[in-house]
Amino acid sequence: MNDMTLMDSTVDTQPTKIAAKNVNVYYGDSHAIKDVNVEIEDKTVTAFIGPSGCGKSTFLRCLNRMNDTIDICRVKGDILLDGEDIYDKRVDPVQLRAKVGMVFQKPNPFPKSIYDNVAYGPRIHGLAKNKAELDEIVEKSLRRGAIWDEVKDRLDAPGTGLSGGQQQRLCIARAVATEPEVLLMDEPCSALDPIATAQVEELIDELRASYSVVIVTHSMQQAARVSQKTAFFHLGNLVEFGPTGQIFTNPEDPRTESYITGRIG
Amino acid sequence: MPTIWLVVLLLALAAAGFYWGRARALSSAGGDARELHSLPSYYGYHVALASFVPAITVLVVWLLAQPLVIENRVSSLIPAEAVPESSTLGLVMSDVRRVAEGLDIAVEQGMLSRKEARDMDTGTQDVRALLGEVGVAVGEDVRPEILSAAQAFRNLAATGKTAMTVVVALLALGGFAWAYARTHKDFRARNVVERGVLALLILAASLAILTTVGIVLSMLFETRNFFTLHSWTDFFFGLTWAPNFRGDSELSILPLLWGTLYISFIALLVAVPVGLFAAIYLSEYASSAVRAFAKPLLEILAGIPTIVYGLFALLTVGPALVDLFGKGGLLGVEWMAGATSVLTAGLVMGVMLIPFVSSLSDDIINAVPQAMRDGSLGLGATKSETVRQVVMPAALPGIVGAILLAASRAIGETMIVVMGAGAIAKFSANPLESMTTITTRIVSQLTGDTDFASPETLVAFALGLSLFVLTLGLNVLALYIVRKYREQYD
Predict the structure, then answer these.
(1) Does residue B234 lie in a domain region?
(2) Among A69, A125, A171, whose Cβ lies nearest the Cβ of B377?
(3) What is the reported pLDDT for A40?
(4) Hey, is B124 helix, strand or coil?
């Protein structure tokens, strides 16, 4: 921890958005996450990297309590969002997920029109007073998702009819529409081709201006391209966390170096 | 020689063929199975199939065709004058068959020699008494035409049987020799046996289809007979169902169709909400422990025979409804006279359909990808919002298909309506009155003393065909919708 404070002082820092303290996650008997401590900053892209099965997706899903939907999953430790414990009994996970949006590995538009896909969140949370406001939210979100120009003439077409890259940007627009404070992305580009990936990466960089973004990725190049902070997970442990440039050029832990240079993973 | 021995002989030949074919293949490869194109047993199967399959096919076809041919030939021997006024050719032919059968037994028991049986005539012997002694009762004295026809019958049958045995045996031996000669280490026995298996599978599939076609054709034939006796406008557009076995009946399907659809509607009104909600609970909310316990329990309902449901309708639900709506009932109204009513049958049929709707819907809801639910939950939707706005719309086409399948079962259901719905054909919107359905009328038109030349009986076939067309249409529609839905996520 001391090292980290040292490093933090050397780069320009943002206030902490999410702080995880001594987080342990169990799936039944298996111990998936071991004593993870991490501080995720506001208006920053934080990348989680690590080999398959290292627990990075599991940890990501703890941040908006999506693991609650899995019966055998237990979470121990504290996760604070703006200083409040999200696993406190008084916190409604449904409200939490409106604040901490999520984009999934595989594009998963609902079998509804493009408009209804984006309007889904605002409708549920009553964000728009009337149709005009809802139209405005939908347009703004689609613009933020960098897909407005491609779909503005066919908002009534089904979202499932779009190409893979378009679907994923639609899902990002859908997540953005509920005005979240944090956006979690679980390998958002793994099902996309390089061109669509480039578009989504560009989008992530733009989203940084308004949100704290956490992205899980298998691609180290992607982590290097889009993130400011990087966390390396291995076998359920958080091995190293620091500024992306430092992790990729001058890692402290030998395991990080081995992974980045391709010796493990 | 009885036919069964022929079959046993064929099986024995096939078994011998298996071993000899195998042995020949092995010896052609010098005893080294790796030299062979196929595994040794394939060569065995090849010889066994070649000796057994063509022979048994011919045997079966022969057994089916021979009685028809003999019948035809013998009935042409009977002069038209020999058929009495009050009788038909069919009845005379059945006499001929009985006499022929009696002679067979008499020969078997040694009371007659083969020659005596062939040469006997009514002038010198009392055939009726003789047949009576061997236990075959004939209604009247055997007339000379019938006796000679019976003797011709026996002759033809005997010749036919000998010919059959020879042909089948030759075919079996021929097949055996042909396959045995072809057995060599380079022969591709595996591929040939594979094709034989394929033919077997095709045969099974076409048998199922042919049966359906046969049922439809026989219904069509009888329905055509019905429409030559009764006007089709009355059947399809008349308003009254009043069969009268003295003739001049009014036989319209419309009142029956009304009763059928009304009862099915009430059944679906019960089954669809209950079944669907049960499916939603089981697939979305229930823990796996509850599901493991509740799902089989629900499916027990589907295993109850419909006659038991019928009893339940007649003896429990009906009287309970009378206690509620009948004279001196709890509600103090006098709306219901007897236990049988549309509501009785509809409620019980609805209970019967609950597991049908719920297990089909459960499968369909489970087929909605988890990613849809995650996407919705990740946006801050609650579980019920997710179910209502994402899972249900995605599953809707499949659920509509499930409901249509349930509807077609409701329309075709018989036992519950026979016992619970009553027997009065009428148009009425009152669910507390008894009404009748198409299936109930088919049962009542065909049971008891029936004359298959009267429209009152034949109408059952027209009703059956209409029912078949109706449920077939619903099933096709349901399958079409379900299939269209399936393509969405592939």
Answers:
(1) no
(2) A69
(3) 92
(4) coil
* Nearest Cβ partner for B379 among A69, A111, A121: A121
Region for residue B230 given its phi and psi (left: phi exceeds 0; alpha: psi -120 to 50; beta: otherwise):
beta
The answer to whether the beta carbons of residues A68 and A80 sit under 8 Å apart is no
B236 within a domain of the structure (yes/no)? no
pTM of the model: 0.75
Structure tokens that stand for B270 in this block: 């019960």
- Look at A71 and B371 and tell me if their CB atoms are within 8 Å: no
B175 and B209 assigned to the same domain: no
Dump pLDDT digits (tens) for B147-190. 888 888 888 888 898 999 999 999 999 999 999 999 888 888 89
Closest alpha carbon within chain B to A161? B488
Structure confidence at residue A8 (pLDDT): 43
Same domain, B198 and B316: no
The whole-number pLDDT of residue A11 equals 52
Q: Which residues of A touch B378 (CB under 8 A)?
A: 64, 66, 97, 101-104, 175
Q: What is the DSSP string of B219-288?
A: HHHHHHHHHHHS-HHHHHH---EE--TTS--EE-SHHHHHHHHHHHHHHHHHHHHHHHHHHHIIIIIS-H
The average pLDDT across A143-159 equals: 90
Whole-angstrom distance, CA of residue B209 vs CA of residue B9? 32
Interface test with B, best of A120, A137, A174 (most B CBs within 10 A): A120
CB pairs under 8 A between A and B: 72
Query: Do B173 and B264 fall into the same domain?
Result: no
- pLDDT reported for residue A196: 83
pLDDT tops 60 at residue B192: yes
Which pLDDT score is estimated for B135?
Answer: 75
Q: State both tokens at A44.
A: 């920053």
Domain span including residue B97:
3-186
Flag whether residue A191 sits within 8 Å of chain B, measured between CB atoms: no
Nearest to A94 among B375, B380, B394 (CB): B380
CA distance B277 to A88: 32
Are A104 and B371 a contacting pair at CB < 8 A?
yes
Both B269 and B401 in one domain: the answer is yes
Q: Does A98 touch chain B (CB under 8 A)?
A: yes
Cα distance between residue B183 and residue B171, in whole Å:
18
Q: Which two tokens stand for residue B282?
A: 């089981």
What burial class does residue B84 get, using C-beta atoms within 10 Å of its C-beta: 0-12 exposed, 13-18 middle, 19+ buried?
A: exposed
A120 contacts B372? CB cut-off 8 A = no
pLDDT of residue B1: 59
Complex ipTM value: 0.84
Of B287, B288, B390, the CB nearest to A110: B390
Q: Which of B313, B339, B317 is nearest to B432 (CA)?
A: B339
Same domain, B399 and B439: yes
Residue B490: the pLDDT is 43
Instruction: Please judge whether A104 and B288 are an interchain contact, meaning their C-beta atoms are less than 8 angstroms apart.
Output: no
Chain B residue with Cα closest to A118: B379
List the single residue in A with minimal CA-CA distance to B374: A66
Residue B430 sits in a domain whose CATH number is 1.10.3720.10
Whether residue B160 is contained in a domain is answered as yes
A6 confidence band (pLDDT: 50, 70, 90): very low
Examine the domain organization and report whether B7 and B148 are in the same domain.
Answer: yes
Does the beta-carbon distance from B381 to A124 stay under 8 Å? yes
Number of domains within chain B: 3
Q: What is the pLDDT of residues B320-374, one digit of tens each?
A: 988 888 877 777 777 877 888 899 999 999 999 999 999 989 988 988 888 899 9
* Dist CA A38 CA A49 (whole Å): 14
Residue B479 has pLDDT above 80, yes or no: yes
Partner B contacted by A247 (CB < 8 A): no
B262 and B359 within one domain: yes
Residue of chain B nearest A94, judged by CA positions: B380
Task: Report if residue B262 sits inside a domain.
Answer: yes
- Per-residue pLDDT of B402-440, as tens digits, reads 899 899 999 998 889 988 888 888 888 888 888 899 999
